[in-house]
Sequence to fold (156 residues):
Amino acid sequence: MFELDIPGFGHVRLEYLVSDFTGTLSVDGKLSPGVKERMNRISEFLKIHILTADTFGKAKAELKDIHCTIHILTGDNHDVQKEHYIADLGAESLIAFGNGNNDRLMLKTAKIGVVVCLNEGCAADAVKAADILVTSIADGLDLLLNPMRLKATLRF
Fold:
């Protein structure tokens, strides 16, 4: 559990971290540096779920040493699938990370949506849907490991 009072934004009580994989936690299917260590530290106080279409087919192998639940998306409408997944968990109790068009509904619906802009960029609609934009996943995850950063960014 993660709790924080943010002036103007409100009380945040998180149980989950939900993230996209491709372009968010990884570049070209390879986990970004420092993600494993940070995610495992975060898994001590939040349940982690990874939602991915697994574009490069490497997600399970890359995430094998991280304490998380991996859900590989199939079929169409991945944006809607991600939105429904977080709604089932309880969107008000989670922070979501993503970068693509298929993440925009998840980012908008989550209590806190963080768009991550790495090498492949990020979709404009994902940026508009997010509460925070970061230029590295390490910086995004560090918002949870250093809560005053999160407070400073979201306060009114």
